[in-house]
């Protein structure tokens, strides 16, 4: 009676071609799956890094969607819950160089107060009422530098969302502002005001 080992060897010898192809397919699939896992981990890490760069010192982000919170919510969280926080208003608009009339559509406009930059660890940037800071990409696109004037158009924020029944007709706001400076703070966003 033959041993099991000899039977296995004879079987492998007889079916060597199909066994070789199965072995090759298993190796190829293992390499593909391992590569996918490594690439997936790399992509996940780069997305985490990108999100971390965008958020800065932010640990928790509360979004109100189409409505907005008053600035008092940030102050209440700061005072009562002892959580370091600040408010930010994000809207999309249009910005235009007053001198050259060159404009940029779909500009991300962030409304912040003096606490925002301190919260993010930047004590050097100070924006007063009627002034604006832009990122380098927008400054280059519009051809502006510190001291130039910008026209900013945006949809006004109202207590009642625009898609609510019987909402008043939408009217846009417009402001003319002096450029305080060009910042690298929002350098990852395409066009920021």
Plain-language structure description:
The protein is α+β, with helices and mostly antiparallel strands and 193 residues long. The chain folds into two domains: 4-54; 88-183, no CATH class. It is built from five helices and five strands. The chain has a five-stranded mixed beta sheet. A hairpin with a 5-residue loop joins strand 1 (89-97) and strand 2. The chain starts with a helix and ends in a 10-residue tail after the last strand.
Topology at a glance:
Layout (H helix, E strand, L loop, with lengths): L3 H11 L1 H40 L15 H10 L8 E9 L5 E9 L2 H6 L11 E5 H7 L6 E7 L16 E12 L10
Parallel strand pairs: 3-5
Antiparallel strand pairs: 1-2, 1-4, 4-5
- Which strand order do you get reading across the main beta sheet? 2-1-4-5-3
Q: Secondary-structure element sequence?
A: HHHEEHEHEE
The average pLDDT is 78
Tally of individual domains: 2
**Unreliably modeled segments:** 188-193
Oligomer: single chain
Strand content: 15-25%
Distance between the termini: 86 Å
The helix content, as a percent range, equals: 25-40%
Structural class: alpha+beta
> Major sheet, described briefly?
5 strands, mixed
Any idea what the shape is?
elongated
The count of helical stretches stands at: 5
Radius of gyration: 29 Å
Q: How many extended strands?
A: 5
């Amino acid at each position: 009676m033959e041993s099991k080992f000899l039977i296995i060897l004879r079987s492998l010898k007889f079916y060597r071609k199909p066994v070789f192809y199965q072995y090759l397919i298993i190796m190829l699939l293992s390499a593909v799956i391992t590569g996918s896992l490594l690439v997936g981990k790399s992509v996940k890490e780069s997305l985490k890094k990108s999100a971390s760069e965008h958020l800065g010192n932010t640990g928790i982000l509360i979004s109100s969607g189409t409505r907005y919170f008053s600035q008092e919510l940030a102050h209440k969280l700061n005072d009562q819950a002892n959580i370091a926080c600040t408010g930010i208003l994000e809207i999309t608009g249009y910005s235009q160089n007053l001198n050259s009339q060159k404009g940029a559509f779909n500009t991300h406009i962030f409304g912040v107060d003096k606490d925002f930059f301190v919260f993010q660890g930047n004590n050097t940037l100070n924006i007063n009422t009627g002034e604006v800071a832009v990122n380098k990409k927008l400054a280059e696109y519009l051809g502006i530098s510190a001291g130039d004037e910008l026209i900013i158009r945006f949809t006004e924020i109202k207590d009642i969302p625009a898609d609510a029944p019987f909402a008043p007709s939408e009217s846009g706001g417009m402001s003319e502002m002096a450029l305080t400076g060009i910042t690298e703070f929002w350098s990852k966003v395409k066009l920021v005001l």
